[in-house]
Amino acid sequence: MLFTLFLSACTAQQDKDRIAQLEKQTQLLQQQLQQQRQTANLELQAQCADAARKSYLADGFDKAKTNTSNSYTNHYSEKLNKCFIEVESIEVTPSTGRIFTSRQLSDAFEGKLYSEIYINKTKVDPPASRPVFQCQLISLSGESKNCESVKEYEDFIKQYMN
């Protein structure tokens, strides 16, 4: 009886040791997997940045005309597994005081357009009165709708650029 009790205690301790060892191995594997995901994500972000730069250059935005300023931002969305580029172009007409701004969000790899907004205003217009010439928002499913304000545009693109 005493021997059986001793054997049970030894087996229980071995089980505890084995469980502790398995927990350590599991934790190590989880850390390795997390590192692999981070490395893959960094590689995808780098590919996205490269694709966005190439798209920007291919569309000729680097060759700004006089009185025009162009810029872009890009973002790789891990959640959507897509690379987005938003290009902004601002053209000022000194003789009329007009400022024309366009912003377009698209997939940097596929070129698919997700939103665009065109704004025309004068330097003396109050910010709230910026007339929107055109604003179109396109969902991932392809549904298109018009928008009425810069805020609506910016709220919409957050789902792609965050």
Describe this structure in words.
This protein has 162 residues and is of the alpha+beta class. The protein has one domain. It contains two helices and six strands, in the order H-E-E-E-E-E-E-H. The chain has helices at 2-58, 150-161, and strands spanning 68-77, 82-93, 98-107, 113-122, 132-138, 144-146. It has a six-stranded antiparallel β-sheet, sandwiched between helices. Strand 5 (132-138) and strand 6 (144-146) form a beta hairpin.
Rounded radius of gyration (Å): 28 Å
Count of helical segments? 2
Q: What would the average pLDDT be, to the nearest integer?
A: 83
Distance between the termini: 66 Å
Portion in helices: 40-55%
Whole-number tally of structural domains: 1
What would you call the structural class?
alpha+beta
Low-confidence stretches: none
Strand order of the largest sheet: 1-2-3-4-5-6
Shape: elongated
In terms of DSSP E residues, the strand content is 25-35%
- The ordered H/E elements are HEEEEEEH
Main pleated-sheet profile? 6 strands, antiparallel
- Strand element count: 6
Task: Give a brief outline of the structure.
Helix content is 43%, strand content 32%. It has helices spanning 2-58, 150-161; strands at residues 68-77, 82-93, 98-107, 113-122, 132-138, 144-146. A six-stranded antiparallel sheet has the order 1-2-3-4-5-6, with helices on both faces.
